[in-house]
Every structure is written in structure tokens, then in C-alpha cells.
Amino acid sequence: MVLTDPCIQPRSLPPDDIPYKAPAPAPAAKSSLKRKKRAATAEQPASGQLKKKKKTKKTKKGNVTPV
């Protein structure tokens, strides 16, 4: 019985002396930050109600902002 050949050996497993490390739990701060952002944006008017900025037009006399 020859088990030293790497082709015959089963898939290698990590050694037993390494302690199992559980994945770190996701930080809860991110979800609360998202909630705060949503609450802040909810207080603002909808995008359809926002006033659009009027562009300044260049003329021979200088820049004129429409009223």
C-alpha cells in the first residue's frame, strides 16, 4: 500500500492545530447610517418639485441671468 503518491491521496485538509475562526458578524452601524440617510432624504421634496437652476446666458454685454 503506497499512499505517498500525491495523485492517490485524498484532498488535503487543514491541520488540526489551527483553531476554527468564525466569520466576523457584519457591523450594524452601516444599516443605521442607511436609515438616517433615508430619513434625511425623505424630508426633502420629491425630485419633481425641486426648482431647476436657470442657466446664465452669455451676451455681448456680459453674463445675464434670466429672471
TrEMBL record:
Residues 1-67 are annotated as: Disordered. Residues 12-26 have a biased composition (Pro residues). Residues 50-61 have a biased composition (Basic residues). This is Uncharacterized protein. It comes from Trichophyton interdigitale (strain MR816).
